[in-house]
Automatic annotation (TrEMBL), chain A:
Matching InterPro entries: Cyt_P450, Cyt_P450_CS
Family as reported in the entry's similarity comment: Belongs to the cytochrome P450 family.
The organism of origin for this protein: Pseudonocardia abyssalis
Protein name: Cytochrome P450
Highest taxon in the source lineage: Bacteria
Record key words, sorted: Heme, Iron, Metal-binding, Monooxygenase, Oxidoreductase
Automatic annotation (TrEMBL), chain B:
InterPro entries recorded: 2Fe-2S_ferredoxin-type, Adrenodoxin-like
Required cofactor(s): [2Fe-2S] cluster
Keywords: 2Fe-2S, Iron, Iron-sulfur, Metal-binding
Family in the record: Belongs to the adrenodoxin/putidaredoxin family.
Protein origin, superkingdom: Bacteria
Leader peptide range in chain numbering: none
Protein name: (2Fe-2S)-binding protein
PROSITE patterns per the UniProt record, alphabetical: 2FE2S_FER_2 (PS51085)
Every 2Fe-2S ferredoxin-type domain range: 2-105
Length: 396, 106
């Protein structure tokens, strides 16, 4: 008698809680445990599957017919309802149409006229801060370009715009599972949606701004006008915090690895490669999820239709199956295929702008700063985002 | 195994391709110079620009909408045979394709 091995093996399970304070502050050991357990692991506490290996995360993100975004990319039903139909949470033609509108000012060509302004602003800021000798790299350094230049380009009405930083952060918290952190943040969402619906409207938006262009596109029939408020969220949510956190993480990594900062200073053409390495090591967005549209097998493990899988970008980026010595910060590695911006049809639409902002800052810093010394740091305790709320540094 | 030829300046490199990768990934895996691919293959940066010069050109899939918009952003001029190499999947059908890597990507 012969037997044939079953086509699928049982999915490994784990009761590890990825969203405790300690796991969020230091996710790497937990990610490693999950990666080693299998290509997919059932997280018993949340009733969802975790994808933590590079190949699995990449596959999930690049296979939208199996892993659609239209059912939401968050880990709780409330939030998946709130953002239904924005660019992030849509598929196929509807997604392509709204992404085309959102992406228009963010292509390399559209951003080219901004290069000089962003470089000059970065240089001025770095001159002012380095003259002081010490500053908060999270608040003073990282906030400046996104808050002054980018939020102006988005063009929301002045009144209420100062709340954007709070809204963006709280909104991303609500992407997590329905834990205490998510519940605390949910109340702020109402305020954000109210603003998107009643204030971010034609007549109140800055003329020529990106937000106004969304309404113009809707008026031309390129997207459903009813979607304009949730499309405002496409700009309001990710344009600030993510870049801010990436910048603070970069300063921290350079402070911790002075030899790598030396390499960048000696050869500033390494800045783009160093930025990719920062985003690989410390992805500002650690995880989004996808629903599972059909039964699907990954490396022998069956993922049932109707379930939800969380794609951990931060874990995939540290997978030794893909990156040799993944916990080592190496500015010469140039990992252009990192998952810090996601991948596939929903890859970060603002990546060119984020790169431009970071590049301008670190090229200016490379001219002025020989050493960063961290005096005091506070990490954000956040369901989804990774970075610093405070990073006091002395520069030499 | 399909073979792809990349022309870079006066040089020419022919490499064996594994089906399932893209023309961009294949170039990076084989250290073909001139392909930057800053966005990692998401049709967002226009830094993996190639000109399709020879071989089974008519077997290539059409230029998609995202690729079309990004081809308007290339540093080297866009030509009728311009493509983003990240948007060309490797198949047996394109065995023998010859592409020229654009001179300037950034």
């Amino acid at each position: 008698m012969t037997t044939t091995a079953p086509a699928t093996t049982i999915c490994p399970r784990s009761d590890f809680d990825v969203y405790t304070d300690s796991a969020l502050l230091d996710p790497w050991p937990g990610y490693r445990e999950l990666r080693d357990a299998g290509p997919l692991v059932h997280l018993d506490r949340y009733g969802m599957f975790a994808a933590t290996r590079y190949d699995t995360v990449s596959h999930v993100l690049r296979t939208p017919e199996v892993f659609p975004s239209g059912e939401g990319v968050m880990m709780n039903d409330e939030m998946n309802q709130v953002l239904r139909g924005n660019t992030l949470c849509s598929d196929g033609e509807a997604h392509d149409a709204s992404r085309r509108v959102i992406a228009r000012p963010l292509t390399p060509k559209a951003l080219r006229p901004l290069h000089d302004e962003i470089r000059a602003e970065a240089r001025g800021l770095v001159d002012r801060l380095t003259a002081r000798g010490s500053f908060d790299a999270a608040g003073d350094l990282a906030h400046h370009l996104p808050v002054t230049i980018v939020s102006n380009l988005v063009g929301l009405p002045e009144e209420g715009r100062e709340r954007m930083l709070v809204w963006a952060s709280e909104m991303f918290n609500c992407f997590g599972p329905m834990n205490e952190r998510t519940q605390r943040s949910l109340s702020v969402l109402g305020e954000m949606m109210e603003y998107a619906t009643t204030q971010a409207v034609p007549g109140k938006l800055k003329p020529g701004s990106w937000a106004e262009a969304v309404h113009d596109a809707a008026a031309r029939g390129e997207v459903d006008p009813g979607k304009c408020p949730v499309m405002m969220i496409d700009y309001m949510g990710p344009s600030l915090d993510t870049t801010i956190f990436a910048i603070s993480s970069a300063v921290w990594l350079f402070a911790e690895n002075p030899d790598q900062w030396d390499l960048v200073r000696e050869n500033p053409s390494l800045v783009p490669s160093a930025i990719n390495e920062v985003l690989r090591m410390e992805a500002p967005i650690q995880d989004f999820s996808r629903s599972v549209a059909v039964d699907h097998e990954i490396d022998g493990v069956l993922l049932p239709r109707g379930s939800r899988v969380i794609a951990f970008y931060g874990a995939g980026n540290r997978d030794e199956r893909h990156y040799p010595d993944p916990d080592r910060f190496d500015v010469t590695r140039n990992p252009t295929d990192h998952l810090g911006f996601g991948a596939g049809p929903h890859a970060c639409v603002g990546m060119n702008l984020a790169r431009l902002e970071m590049r301008a800052l670190f090229e200016a810093l490379a001219e002025k700063v020989t050493r960063f010394e961290v005096q005091h740091s506070e990490r954000a305790l956040h369901n989804i985002l990774r970075g610093f709320t405070r990073l006091d540094v002395t520069v030499h | 195994m399909p073979k792809i030829t990349y022309r870079v300046g006066g040089d020419s490199t022919t490499v064996d391709a594994a089906v399932g990768t893209s023309l961009m990934q294949l170039a990076l895996q084989n250290a073909v110079s001139g392909i930057v691919a800053e966005c990692g293959g998401n049709a967002m940066c226009a830094t993996c620009h190639v000109y399709v010069e020879d071989g089974p050109v008519d077997r290539l899939a059409d230029v998609g909408a995202a690729e079309d918009e990004m081809l308007d952003c290339t540093m080297s001029p866009r030509e009728p045979n311009s493509r983003l190499s990240c948007q060309i999947p490797m198949t047996d059908e394109i065995d023998g394709l010859v592409v020229r890597v654009a001179d300037e990507q950034h």
